[in-house]
Amino acid sequence: MQQLDHTFAALADPTRRAILARLALGEATVGELAEPFDVSLPAISKHLKVLETADLIVREKRAQQRVCRLKPETLKTASDWIEQSRRLWKERFDRLDAYLRELQSKENNDGNG
Questions:
Q1: CA distances in angstroms from 34 to 19, 76, 79, listed in the order given
Q2: Which of 9, 10, 32, 37 is deepest in the core (most CB within 10 A)?
Q3: Is a pLDDT exceeding 90 seen at residue 9?
Q4: What are 37-93's pLDDT values in tens digits?
Q5: Which domains are delineated in the chain?
Q6: Do 64 and 36 touch, CB atoms closer than 8 A?
Q7: Can you name the residues that pair with 29 across neighbouring β-strands?
Q8: What does the alpha-carbon distance between residue 20 and residue 48 come to, in Å, rounded to a whole number?
Q9: How many other C-beta atoms are found inside a 10 Å radius of the C-beta of residue 76?
Q10: Long-range contacts of 45-49 (CB under 8 A, 24+ apart)
Q11: pTM
């Protein structure tokens, strides 16, 4: 569960989500990832460190560059957890809805007698 906590904490920041969206298109250098943002390279590096700690990306040194790529399996784990929770809550709401309809039906029947 701690890995999931790291994943959701990393996803909470819009800059990190934008970085992940860019990496979904393919690997990129740190410079390429920093380009669209109005923040310093050290700030981008901090975001990348958070994403790396959350196991959402991998950074590799290639020649003089640091190349980043997405690790989609970690996002899949988060997605699976969300889907499982969504199904659980849907079942609970469906049961509540059925119970409320049953109560309403009883109330309507009792009022007719």
A1: 9, 25, 26
A2: 10
A3: yes
A4: 998 999 999 999 999 999 999 999 888 888 999 998 888 888 888 899 899 999 999
A5: 2-71 (1.10.10.10)
A6: no
A7: 67
A8: 10
A9: 10
A10: 47/13, 47/15, 47/16, 47/19, 48/19
A11: 0.74
Residue for token digits 């709401």?
93
Which residue carries 């809805």 as its tokens?
97
Amino acid 26 reads G
Contact 15, 39 (CB under 8 A): yes
Amino acid in position 23: L
Structure tokens at 35: 């380009």
Residue type, position 51, single letter: L
